[in-house]
What we know:
It comes from Aphanothece hegewaldii CCALA 016. This is NYN domain-containing protein. InterPro entries: LabA (IPR047140), NYN (IPR021139). 39% of the residues lie in helices and 21% in strands. It is α/β, with parallel strands linked by helices. It has one domain (20-175): Rossmann fold (3-Layer(aba) Sandwich). The longest helix has 12 residues, at 72-83.
Amino acid sequence: MFEDFESDTIFTAEQVLENRGRVAIFIDGSNLFYAALQLGIEIDYTKLLFRLTGGSRLLRAFFYTGVDRTNEKQQGFLLWMRRNGYRVIAKDLVQLPDGSKKANLDVEIAVDLMALVGSYDTAVIVSGDGDLAYAADAVSYRGARVEVVSLRSMTSDSLINVADRYIDLDQIKEDIQKSPKSHLNYSPFPALGTVLDDNRPR
């Protein structure tokens, strides 16, 4: 009875995407950074925004990240992000007793997901963090559609299970990576790498 369950498609991908309405994007910067490292690519954030919006009406794109205020390269990258379609939510890194640095922004993402319910029709969560599953489930019960975008090996099953749609970054990496010939005037990965090294998902 259940043998062919997973192969049965009720809607095509095009039908699923055609009614996304107003889209709000919530990007966990640290999670995306390490996913890109695993894939061996550098993210082109203009392409990423275009791909995640997918022709729908963009309400707002949030980018959440821990910051080192003394890192000029990172500050330059975040300024570029602010001027190119992203609302940056930054939080100072805190040094832990073991010497590592961390800035957890799960609460900020969850609060913004809930606070904007009613303003968006589709929430695109770019993170694999299972701590966001409860908030994602809550907004879905308020009538919002939830899409999760992350690398499968770094994504919690609990988050995938509450999503209306899951997209593996590995499947869209060609659409969102920088081209070798790109001469854009920002270089996010070297700048973020020094800051986020101690903030990798564990």
